[in-house]
Design a protein that fits this description.
This protein is an alpha/beta fold. Helix content is about 35%, strand content about 15%. It is globular and about 60 Å long.
Length: about 425
């Protein structure tokens, strides 16, 4: 049965009257594009136009939209229960998901704590690290050390770990906890690091390790802080420094997990195991919000044997059965397919399709890694100018700052990928 499309003008008017969009003004409201449906790699707008989605809904819809396997998982779980509190109760989807996550992540990460979103997963990791040291008799270790150009989320604890100068949260600087920051890694992906590459990191650890609970980094790819790709050797040496100075190591793989960089997890490029690992975004294939924070026995036992005897956190919707069942289906679907070949094919298409942008005026760099393609400009884009140009070309790309980038679903075929990259290059040429 054909469904009537929602009225474009009514949706836009209703949106402008009541909704506050992310990173947007409530008075000078930006133009928004009403979506009527989504399937595969396409968004169908309320006026009937179709857009090839290059963003995978902020990097999470790795299987595309309206996938029959994930749809079945939602419907099946809905017949049993949509939600039940996780305090004192458990259920099969959560147990299966925890087993899957501990099976596919490094072997030392044996305990899983579920939460609602990536930012909260980072908050949980911070609390784990701080409570661990308190529990083992070192309450002074309360601070964290992060990287410049990093991004870890928009909640207060997570904001304190984002770059305080170039990040988007400097307005809240006086209200945030003061953390320590090391320079962003400068050695590009695929190249080895010498000792000098981590000299500033080592100096900070040497000077402040008595106050540091953990170092937190986005392995291999710094995402919303600049879409920077850096050497895997940096992570190898960082693990050694954390061990030497007795500081926990947290990897934030919310953006990079589940195949985005060409490995199932970005940490695999370095063969390094963190003490705490944050996952989110693609965990459910983009169907609903869910995140997980994994830790090793040192952390879980240290906390549990301490003064509180329990980890002091408990989200209301923790371990939501619908989300857990969908995550299980998404992971099993990913692992059942030749996803590495798909990501490699997408990388080749991105490299070929974006290469002409290197010759454009105003372009500082073009880089790709896995299913990530980036055109970096010398100057920030004008969103009100550039967004309609992408829509006119039949693609959905959402730039930020100086970055015009894409992270397409893994199912995107070559023809659509070529259309997507051609639109990126043509639009950058037009605005620059």
């Amino acid at each position: 049965m054909n469904r009537a499309r929602p009225d474009w003008a009514q949706l836009q008017a209703g949106d402008a009257a009541s909704i506050w969009h992310p990173y947007a003004s409530a008075t000078d409201t930006p133009e928004v594009y009403p979506v009527a449906s989504a399937s595969g790699v396409r968004l169908t707008l309320a006026d009937g136009r179709e857009l090839i989605d290059g963003m995978a809904s902020w990097w999470c819809a790795i299987h595309g939209y309206n996938h029959p396997v994930l749809n079945r998982a939602v419907r099946k779980q809905l017949d049993d229960m949509s939600h039940v509190m996780f305090g004192g109760l458990t259920h099969a989807p959560a147990v299966r998901l925890a087993q899957l996550l501990t099976d596919i992540t490094p072997p030392g990460l044996e305990r899983v704590f579920f939460s609602d979103s990536g930012s909260v997963a980072v908050e949980v990791a911070m609390k784990m690290a701080i409570q661990y040291w308190y529990s083992v008799g070192q309450p002074r270790k309360q601070k964290l050390l992060a990287l410049r150009s990093g991004y870890h989320g928009d909640t207060f604890g997570a904001m304190s770990l984002c770059d305080p100068v170039t990040g988007m949260h400097h307005l809240f600087g006086e209200a945030l906890s003061r953390q320590y920051f090391a320079p962003a890694p400068e050695v590009p992906f695929g190249q080895p690091c010498d000792e000098q590459a981590l000299a500033a990191m080592e100096e900070l650890l040497a000077s402040h390790h008595q106050d540091l609970a953990a170092v937190i980094v986005e392995p291999i790819v710094q995402g919303a802080g600049g879409m920077r790709f850096y050497s895997a050797d940096y992570l190898v040496q960082l693990r050694g420094l954390c061990d030497a100075f007795d500081v926990l190591l947290i990897f934030d793989e919310i953006a990079t997990g589940f195949g985005r960089t060409g490995k199932l997890f970005a940490l695999e490029h370095a063969g390094v195991e963190p003490d705490i690992l944050c996952l989110g975004k693609a965990l459910t294939g983009g169907y609903m919000t869910l995140a997980a924070t994994l830790c090793n026995r040192r952390v879980s036992h240290g906390i549990s044997d301490g003064e509180a005897g329990a980890f002091m956190h408990g989200p209301t919707f923790m371990g939501n059965p619908l989300a857990c069942a969908t995550a299980v289906a998404s992971i099993e679907l990913l692992l059942s397919q030749p996803w590495q070949r798909c990501v490699q094919r997408i990388n080749q298409g991105l490299e070929t399709g974006l290469a002409p942008a290197r010759e454009l005026p105003g372009v500082a760099d073009v880089r790709t890694l896995g299913a990530i393609g980036v055109i970096e400009l010398h100057e920030p884009v004008d969103m009100q100018q550039i967004q309609p140009l992408f829509v006119q070309r039949g693609v959905w790309i959402r730039p930020f700052g100086r970055l015009v980038y894409c992270m397409p679903p893994f199912i995107m075929q070559d023809e659509d990928l070529a259309t997507l990259t051609a639109a990126m290059v043509a639009t950058v040429a037009e605005v620059s």
